[in-house]
Structure formats: C-alpha cells, structure tokens
Amino acid sequence: MNMPDGGVRTAPRPIDPRALRSCMGQFATGVTVITCRRGDIVHGTTVNAFTSVSLDPPLALVALDRRSRAGALLLEDGGYVVNILDETQRDLAMHFARPMPGPVPWVDESGPHPRLAGTVAHLVCRPWQVHDAGDHTLHIGGVEEFESRPGRPLLFHRGAFPELAPDDSAGAWSLCLDGMDPVEHFHARDETDETDETRD
C-alpha cells in the first residue's frame, strides 16, 4: 500500500482467532445467565460478556453470538433477566453453557421474567438498542428492576472458575475515580480547598 509521502505501508498481519480468544481470556470476568420467556419458551444461556453501561438512564450491555438462539430471542419483543451467579453456582453456569440434565432453581418460571434462585444479583431489562459487532450482537437493555443479595460472585478466567480472594474489601478502589464514592470524596475535598482559599 502506497503512502502519501511515497513510502510503503505493510499490510497488517491477519489475526489468529484462537490466539485472540486466548489473549482475551486473560481478562477475568463474572458469570451471568441470561434468561427470558418468549411465548411458551423459557430459555437461558451462560454469558460472561456483560457490563454496566450507564446509570442515567440505567443501562446494561450483553454481547451474544449472532448465531445463538439467545441472540435471536432477545431480538424479539419482551424483556429478559441478567442473573449474576453466586460462586456456588458453577453447575448452573455449565448447565446453560451446554445443555445438561439436572434441576434448575427457577423463580417465577411461568411469569414474564423467569429468573434463577440463589444468585448474588439479578437485573430485569427491556430491549433499548441493538448494535451489530462482527460475529456478535450488542444488546443494550434498560434496567427496570434489580436486586442484589449478600454473597460472592462466580468468576471466570482462562476457561476455569477461580475463587475470589478471602479479603473482598474495597480498599484497592479508595483512590480510583471510576466509582461514585471516590468522586464524591474528591469533589468534597475540592470544595473545602476552595473555601479555605477564600477565607485566606
């Protein structure tokens, strides 16, 4: 490829999907199961590509393979539930990752928003926006209801479920601006500094 200055730009090397997947696997995540009802069908799928997007309005994002059944179902009218699994729910994660026999602890299975019992949290979402993203579809949902409970979340890293360290204090985030409490702390400090300067 010729450059404007007469130089030559080499074509980027092709990306090996398996190597990229292994690289992405270095990023530890939580584990969710997305559940929904569409008519007489109650469906669930294990997903770790989940993140909060916005607090105002309250939005959350789930990335699903465009070839998946869940991806197709979420494109239909109706809400869905993001179930954030507890560290004791590895079997549930595997059950919905690849259908396996065994009981499922449903809550309100016959209702419009079936969810799972024993999770550390769940969010009931309504479809808000959908975006194409290569071989996946990004489903952004508006959060209509949510609930969290005491517990420790199930983690996923490099194809395994590691345990969360015993000390789960928030001390490591005390100086991080990516949270509400630290921002409020720094704002309060700035206001105090300005007041002190005015008094001088």
Description:
Its EC number is 1.-.-.-. This is Flavin reductase family protein. It holds the Pfam family Flavin_Reduct. Keywords: Oxidoreductase. The structure is a single chain. The chain starts with 16 loop residues before the first helix and ends with a helix. By secondary structure, the protein is α+β, with helices and mostly antiparallel strands. The chain has helices spanning 17-24, 69-74, 90-97, 180-199, and strands at 29-30, 32-38, 41-47, 50-55, 58-65, 80-84, 106-107, 115-116, 121-133, 136-148, 155-156. It has a single domain (17-169), classed as Roll (Pnp Oxidase, Chain A). A hairpin with a 2-residue loop joins strand 4 (50-55) and strand 5. Helices cover 21% and strands 34% of the residues.
Task: Considering the chains and any ligands shown, give keywords for the structure.
two-stranded antiparallel ribbon, 200 residues, alpha+beta, Pnp Oxidase, Chain A, 11 strands
